[in-house]
Amino acid sequence: MIDRALLTSWLAVARLAPSPHNNQPWLARATPDGVILRLDDEQLPLLGPDRVQFLALGAFIENLGYAAAADGYRLTVGGLPIVPRRSAGITIRFHAGPAPGDDAAAFLDGARRRRTNRGHYESRLPPGAAQRLRAVRCEPPATLTLISDPAGRSVAADLAARAMRVLFSVPELRRDLAPFVFSKADGPRDIGMPIESLNPAAAASVPVPGSEWVLELASPDEEAEAARARFEHAPLHFVVSSVTDTLPGWIAGGRTLQRVLVTATVLGLSHCLAAGPAEIPTLLPALRRLGGSAGRPLILGRLGIAAVPAQAIASPRRPVADILSG
Amino acid sequence: MIELLDPVTDRPRIEALLDPAAGIRLVDGWPAALPELASLDLPHLSPGTADAKASLDQYFAGVWTDASIEAASTYALFPWRSTIVRLPGADLFWRLRTARNRYLIDETEQRQWSAALIGIAGLSVGASVLAASSLTGARRFRLAEADTLGPTNLNRLTGSVCDLGEPKLTLAMRRTFEADPYTEIQAFPGGYTQGAAGAFIGTGGVGGTGGAERLTVLVEEMDDLALKVDIRVQARAARVPVVMVTDNGDNAILDVERFDQDPGYPLFHGLAGDLAADPADLGDPIQRVNTASAIVGSQITPRTRFSLTQVGRTLPSWPQLGTAATAGGALGALASRYIACGVPLQSGRYRVDLDETLIGAGAHASSRWNELDEAEFLAGLKAVYRA
To answer: CA-CA distance, B333 to B367, in Å (whole number)?
Structure first.
């Protein structure tokens, strides 16, 4: 039987995982030896595919593992359904194990400090950082491709820019995004992204609700070119892929993604993700080539030392009480 | 007519039917269904890629084992074909059969349409309405028809010379069951009669509480004018909406009478007066023609006008084309679905004029020997029937 207070403290870390538009699409039901996780319908867009939602759930599981490990527990994931239904339950069990190793505290700290930084990055990397990232253990069947050559980074920047243009050009995608952007004109939120983390200039000059900025004011071209510039300057890009494009592959992809992000945080690096190139059918072929033959690309990201660390603005989080039942 | 067999509880019966001595052919629907189920479960896969192949291998190995396929099966016996088909069970089959409707008909609408109880009286044009309704996912019907298939039906009714002389009702049921064996059909082989009105139209709730379940929509496609009036009187009393499609050359006319919304709505939009108050006049042949003419009106194609003046002279009955029957089937099915799904379809007459769509206003001109303009038509009718 897992102590309720212990479980709550682990979930408080797990909920810090990244999610699409910070929608935090997770729910947990306590069981005697763990939790059953599933997607929270209320936080999902009208239609799938839910690849990126399950990636977030995978990252959530990885964070849960870091928190449990620091308390001397090992986490296992039960047999996953292959078909990615929104109602799919994922069984997590915790097993008491050996005392936590030296890395446990560092990774837990990294999981707690991890923030998305959508600003510019410096062009240099700390010594040894790329090697440390290459050594990140991928959760099968997920794979990781790091891209540091200028040609590859240029392709990644182009994909990020085109994805951003699509996001702000397709009414359905704009409508999906709108509820998840908020400004000072909005009330307090526990989901979504503050507008200043997306577009500091807009935040300073346009005192309107975030949804209004997304639906009426944001310029597809400006957002696309800003994304291109930020990705072009980043010294290192990565693609997380999976050998199979099914729910087990997506969960494993999310866990692998979180290992990369937490490792980068431990190394002093910031990150920013772009799910669009993996989700927009016209961009996928180029992302596949960028990812090599590592499987189905799940997400693109950039890593580097933030030029403006303060732009890593902490997005709000849902209280654990909203996530946990049972 | 059709037998649905469970792979566990009906195993002895299935084994007996599969015995070569029984002379029953087995068709396994799963090899065709499995790739389609995979495409529904994993629609996001990128065809032709290594990860799609790996995903499908994982899917087929993990989801559809021989045991899970058999457990999810139903065996459907079609005696008239001496064939038994192993199929995905009702829910899976419904998912497959409505898969290509998705978003065009949303899930709520699809469930409403599949749960709706559609009554069809008359299975000439009515068979086209039945076919289009079943194709779009309706699966609960009451069907009334006493006629048999004759060679002259084959210009508008999908059929086979192998079935000449067979009841139209039997043929309609066979076609429907062959496309969706899980369809519920309540048959009225004597056709619609006053005596069958209560059972056909129904007055009760779902499941038969308070009498037979009331129809969601009545599609009326009978020839007999007295019965057309009677069924409307009964439908209006039970507050069941009525849909009727009528051939008009190559075109179709849809009549919608929302007795569910307005129990005082006049029969046939009141075009022929108060038929409910005085149906006895319909015994008189001249009154009958006058009433039918008043209901149909003169806004019909020039060739339909001419043809109607020939009924009883050089034509035995109302002229009909397969194009109109097919268009009318689609129109009747769509109107029924709108009603079942709560789309605000008002009472009234609606015309679908394919001639005008294709050749413009010239479609209404009468220039050939077999075409009449409206004035000539009305004058001819008056000369014959009101002389």
So the answer is: 34
